[in-house]
């Protein structure tokens, strides 16, 4: 029918996948092509980017609202679906109060959309709003906010190339952030920058590394503490920086006295000589830039892992100058922005704590209502609370798929099914939408306008190349309808906007770090935050004279090793998970791309030849991975590129659903679950 006949024009937009933020537009046939964007300056794109229109055209697209009736989903007119959403949530709020509902924002949707999701939650009277950064970098943000006052890349892709050393921890940018790697990191390595790679796998990034430290998952702190010890022992610290910008040196050095470099290296599974070499290279460098990814953040000590890395940068004065810093590599095209604009249970837009009365007043003046003062539940906390007397009973999930992406996934799916009311806004009937009372057909990246914020804080504009198919609607319109219906009648005007530019204007008013940004001036370029009102431009390198929190000094933070939550029993191995070049997150988008599925159609588990031999497993055999939480079967890729004792799979496939195996032990500060270390029994199936 006409509803599946997509016609695309070639307006400039931004790639919907990773946080690099390449400029893409519709090209020939089914393909996307790059334009000379602010990041991909020569118009380069990776295989995911080229395939970016394929999931848009998928026959699975929802084209009408669905409601659940007598055991099945049936199509319904928009008004009926929205009525159900309104009454479903209102009944719960009336009976149990606003804390009984929760909202799930989306790091693959625009700033304007995420801003509206958090505003709806707060208008309803709850701070229960979160996004999937909870699951990827919440620990990074927590540590960086505590130490520096800002939870984003301290530097930019342009200036990190000035570094003499790259220290890449728990990240594989060559495959996960390919254009950033090819365009900014690899050329620097070709020109002599030394790359140190800390990762249990030998992957494409390791291919460019001078030193590889194949750390056992969960042992980053012993490794980084040992590097700190070498740097102090060999007097590679930056005395001037320590004197002028750092506090707590004595206590930190006292804490290092107990650190035994050789013992820590062995505990972390790395060669002590290699560890010393890495520490010397980092400590000796004039400028060293550190990068951090989910291998660091997704542990129940994720916040402390990042503190341990920050200690190295602070000791050596690698903060506040080009070619230095702590640079988290963000996974989704707008995970930075979803957080910046306040889709966080503890923070209003711009990371202003909900507990701060002045910040609440400032929002209240613009919004016409005051946001609630008590921090809300994080997403793992609310799914766990379902069934409790004071737990969450109703939820709206916007463009996310928690039934696949959360740890201990079988229990999460049960919790979502147990909700009294669940509404989902999505492109497809995802594993989560299957459990919903109401499913609203939203718009893909190619059908919307708005801004997204990439990994190095540049705010860029997306432009629609097509209309949503069938009766599907633009997400911003859907959220405005939901907002108008759920808030008090006399606040109806709070959700009247004449398009994304009007929402953007309002969000710059309540988000101090976005204060000077202008939708019009961004045009097809970018503006970077922080861009305080009245400034000439956004700040590239942060923390130059003082830290973002206004302090001249930051404190060194002694941290101790925290053993992983799962004990290894009998001959269990450590399961760690990650991404590959061809797929993206839960795979809801990339599994709907013919090209990407041809490139990599199924998951495999990588295991070391010694571990395979000990279990009578050969390359290509079906193997069962199991633990108390569940069991999955997947074929074996026997390879020495994975460190002994550890097995690796991706989290891109619903079949097999790896997250039935992952544990939900949470970091006490950031509440991020420990995806990167799960004990599993590995045997031939
Ligand atoms: Fe898209 Fe990231 Fe690939 Fe660029 S590097 S094309 S943003 S997936």
TrEMBL record:
<dbReference type="GO" id="GO:0043546">
    <property type="term" value="F:molybdopterin cofactor binding"/>
</dbReference>
<dbReference type="GO" id="GO:0016020">
    <property type="term" value="C:membrane"/>
</dbReference>
<dbReference type="Pfam" id="PF00384">
    <property type="entry name" value="Molybdopterin"/>
</dbReference>
<dbReference type="GO" id="GO:0003954">
    <property type="term" value="F:NADH dehydrogenase activity"/>
</dbReference>
<protein>
    <submittedName>
        <fullName>Formate dehydrogenase alpha subunit</fullName>
    </submittedName>
</protein>
<dbReference type="GO" id="GO:0015942">
    <property type="term" value="P:formate metabolic process"/>
</dbReference>
<feature type="domain" description="4Fe-4S Mo/W bis-MGD-type">
    <location>
        <begin position="8"/>
        <end position="58"/>
    </location>
</feature>
<dbReference type="Pfam" id="PF04879">
    <property type="entry name" value="Molybdop_Fe4S4"/>
</dbReference>
<keyword id="KW-0408">Iron</keyword>
<dbReference type="InterPro" id="IPR006478">
    <property type="entry name" value="Formate_DH_asu"/>
</dbReference>
<dbReference type="GO" id="GO:0046872">
    <property type="term" value="F:metal ion binding"/>
</dbReference>
<dbReference type="InterPro" id="IPR009010">
    <property type="entry name" value="Asp_de-COase-like_dom_sf"/>
</dbReference>
<dbReference type="InterPro" id="IPR006963">
    <property type="entry name" value="Mopterin_OxRdtase_4Fe-4S_dom"/>
</dbReference>
<dbReference type="InterPro" id="IPR006656">
    <property type="entry name" value="Mopterin_OxRdtase"/>
</dbReference>
<dbReference type="GO" id="GO:0022904">
    <property type="term" value="P:respiratory electron transport chain"/>
</dbReference>
<dbReference type="InterPro" id="IPR050123">
    <property type="entry name" value="Prok_molybdopt-oxidoreductase"/>
</dbReference>
<dbReference type="Pfam" id="PF01568">
    <property type="entry name" value="Molydop_binding"/>
</dbReference>
<dbReference type="InterPro" id="IPR041924">
    <property type="entry name" value="Formate_Dh-H_N"/>
</dbReference>
<dbReference type="InterPro" id="IPR006655">
    <property type="entry name" value="Mopterin_OxRdtase_prok_CS"/>
</dbReference>
<dbReference type="GO" id="GO:0051539">
    <property type="term" value="F:4 iron, 4 sulfur cluster binding"/>
</dbReference>
<dbReference type="GO" id="GO:0008863">
    <property type="term" value="F:formate dehydrogenase (NAD+) activity"/>
</dbReference>
<keyword id="KW-0479">Metal-binding</keyword>
<dbReference type="InterPro" id="IPR006657">
    <property type="entry name" value="MoPterin_dinucl-bd_dom"/>
</dbReference>
<keyword id="KW-0411">Iron-sulfur</keyword>
<keyword id="KW-0004">4Fe-4S</keyword>
